[in-house]
Amino acid sequence: MSTLKNTINLGIQIVPKSKTLDTYALVDKAIEVIQKSGVTYEVTPFETVMEGPQDELMAIALKAQEAVLEAGAEEVLVYYRIHAKNGQNVTMEEKTAKFK
User: Fold this and answer.
1) Which structural domain, as residue segments, surrounds residue 13?
2) CA 73, CA 94: separation in Å to the nearest integer?
3) Of 16, 47, 52, 96, which has the fewest beta carbons less than 10 angstroms from its beta carbon?
4) Is pLDDT at 85 greater than 50 in this prediction?
5) pLDDT tens sequence across 54-78
């Protein structure tokens, strides 16, 4: 059974490299793409976690990477973490609700 249409959590950490540009400003470009996408997300100090169908989240992640390069980064390192269940949805709420 494919998990591509199930709701998953995808953590993305984008690490831009630039000799002349502020790296935080470059990361902000990636976060802007995620914010405009309409998916549920949470920005943390180390990564941004998104929630939705895997194929949609991977497309957003690629756009975020491209936005950083278009903003002037010379190169970019991208790290992903995915939590998916076979035939079931994964939500951030189920993992964090007890801490609110």
Assistant:
1) 7-86
2) 36
3) 96
4) yes
5) 999 999 999 999 999 999 999 999 9
- Cα–Cα dist 30/12, whole Å: 10
In-domain check, residue 41: yes
- The whole-model pTM stands at 0.92
Query: Given phi > 0 = left and psi -120 to 50 = alpha, else beta, which region is 72?
Result: left
Using 50, 70 and 90 to split pLDDT, how confident is the model at 2? low
Task: Specify if 93 maps to a domain.
Answer: no
SS (H, E, C) 11-64: EEEEEEECCCCCHHHHHHHHHHHHHHHCCEEEECCCCEEEEEEHHHHHHHHHHH
